[in-house]
Amino acid sequence: MAENTKYIFVTGGVLSSLGKGLASAAIGMLLESRGLTVTIQKLDPYINVDPGTMNPFQHGEVFVTDDGAETDLDLGHYERFTHAKLGKNNNFTTGKIYDQVITKERKGEYLGGTVQVIPHITDEIKKSIMLVSNNTDVVIVEIGGTIGDIESLPFLEAIRQFRTDVGSSNVIYIHLTLVPYIKTACEVKTKPTQHSVKELRSIGIQPDILLCRTESYLSQEIKNKISLFCNVDPDAVFTAKDVDCIYEVPLVYNKEGLGDKILKKLNIWARAPRLDDWREMVEKYKNPRFSVNIAIVGKYVDLTESYKSLNEALAHGGIFNDARVTLNYVDSSTLTEKNVMEKLSTSDGILVPGGFGSRGIEGKILAAKYARENKVPYFGICLGMHMAVIEVARNIAGMEEANGEEFDPHTPFPVIYLLKEWYDEQTKQVEKRNEGSDKGGTMRLGAYPCQLNPDTLAMKAYKTENISERHRHRFEFNNEYKDRLVEAGLIISGTSPDHELVEIVELADHPWYLGCQFHPEFKSKPSNPHPLFRDFVKASLKNAKKLEDAKK
Ligand code: GLN
Fold first, then answer.
1. Of 27, 63, 106, 273, which is least surrounded by CB within 10 A?
2. Could you list the residue range(s) of the whole structural domain that residue 189 is in?
3. Are residues 300 and 268 in the same domain?
């Protein structure tokens, strides 16, 4: 722990999906705007050791950090709102905590003692919080789940103890609740908040600040009522008003005085917030001059949470280009030779995102072909790059039966194949895998260096030769077919520094066609859009109309 590290624990009540992750990220942003250093950690109550193997339908996107951790999508919010460098220690699940405790028990580290939830699990949780505390002014810890769930109890008990451990002046508890507006009664209701706080207090946690999610600003009268029933200062009850644009959240909090209150409660002295750039960015986001339609041809099209970072990165590209990016999700399994034109012709750019498994693959390959032939900007990410390579192999390089080994293990032309051995940047050792390898641990994960070639779209975007991007995949470009594909027109614009792994491919004679093996969306921020998203949106915009013209 740094000498004066302060801790903010964020819990949620009433129901899930209130936006605790965003609230935590926004609090982090507000504190940074005052010159403080922050980090944010998520403690998740489920038993999976990490979300890596969880179905995106259920859990949304898996966010990957530089150090190769597969984490909860809230870490994406944390990175987009703050400058905190996040890694594997910023996300712990119940499964991971128990795994560590059981491993210690097997090693005999508890010296034969009976291993129990209190104190062994709670101690392990507290140690995990300490792991991210180094050299940081404020550590924000978001507790997943909703107060009242059985699952989150050990975490809540641990954070309750934590205040006594580090001193009460160093810890505050912020509770996010819902204050619904009931139309028939024409009033907002405070009862769910009262019950949620009652539940929290019954386990020994008295919230210091309440953030009330609601449709419009709460009156002082309502705040007083909540204050009375929940034993929280009236000026510590804040409206967390619904907003159109998530990047507005810190501005709303700031307007309500949340930053000042947090500093006061934690006894921190800091400068006034500097929010002008952020405010300007939000203004640009809300009032663009142009509009652009992007088709996302993927599998999880019904659940946009699965493409969280992607959606945000596209929006960031839009902010830079003064454009509203309208996303048109196309379920690739519905695309056929016959309808591809009809389904994609209204889109100014086409993006095929990352994905796993063979469902809908042929539709994605068709989308890549459509984009190539019709000179529509194409951005293929990971699986989307695989699709582009297979398409070029089949339709230009004369390898009609080309495929990826993921979709057809017996293809005569495995242009995308399973790499059996590679140097792992994270563990700094050679990793090996085969078809039967453990699903959780065999991906190329996290940051890898990439070297760009001159006179390419990639170089034009990044404006530097050496970059680092995050990976999450098993299959790779097969160098055995490199010459044939290059001859057919594929440009290899980025590789690993030893040139063994192809990282970016492009096509000549096309306005903008690029596939990358990594996931650039994880590194885009609203105030610093990722260069590839910036340029993809820019290229797509050439097909689009000015908003004013579009309205005519
Ligand atoms: N399924 C592909 C692989 O494992 C692509 C993964 C991805 O798009 N993230 O290599």
1. 106
2. 6-280
3. no
Q: Is the pLDDT of residue 500 over 80?
A: yes
Determine the distance separating the centroid of ligand 1 and the alpha carbon of 219, expressed in angstroms.
50
Determine the distance separating the centroid of ligand 1 and the alpha carbon of 191, expressed in angstroms.
Answer: 47
Query: Does any domain span residue 1?
Result: no
Q: Which of 297, 299, 406 to mutate to test the pocket of ligand 1 (most atoms within 8 A of CB)?
A: 406
**Residue 300, pLDDT score:** 65
Query: Phi and psi at residue 546, in whole multiples of 5°?
Result: -65, 140
User: For the chain, what is the domain count?
Assistant: 2
Query: Distance from the CA of 18 to the center of ligand 1, in angstroms?
Result: 31
499 is catalytic: no
Cβ–Cβ under 8 Å, residues 52 and 70: yes
Any domain includes 449 = no
Q: Give the pLDDT band (50/70/90) at residue 420.
A: confident
pTM greater than the 0.90 cutoff: yes
355 CB under 6 A from ligand 1? yes
Beta strands in 288-333 (DSSP E): 290-298, 323-331
Number of H helices, E strands in the chain: 19, 25
- Helical ranges in 240-297 per DSSP H: 249-256, 258-266, 276-286
Q: What is the reported pLDDT for 436? A: 63
End-to-end C-alpha distance for the chain, whole angstroms: 60
Distance separating alpha carbons of residues 40 and 127, to the nearest angstrom: 15
pLDDT single digits (tens) 26-41: 999 999 999 999 999 9
User: 473 C-alpha to center of ligand 1: Å?
Assistant: 4
Tell me the C-alpha distance between 11 and 344, whole Å. Answer: 43
Residue nearest to atom 3 of ligand 1 (CA): 473
Is residue 446 assigned to a domain? no
Q: How far is CA 386 from CA 314, 354, 360, 436, 480, in A?
A: 21, 9, 13, 22, 15
Looking at the fold, whether 195 and 268 belong to one and the same domain comes out as yes
Active site residue 280: no
Annotated catalytic residue, options 142, 471, 521, 530: 521
Active site residue 77: no
Q: Decide: 433 in ligand 1 pocket, CB within 6 A.
A: no
Same domain, 54 and 183: yes
What pLDDT is attached to residue 2?
47
Q: Name the phi and psi angles at 487, rounded to 5.
A: -60, -35
Ligand 1 within 6 A of CB of 474: yes
Given this model, what pLDDT does residue 459 score? 97
pLDDT of res. 60: 78
- Check pocket membership of 46 for ligand 1, CB cut-off 6 A: no
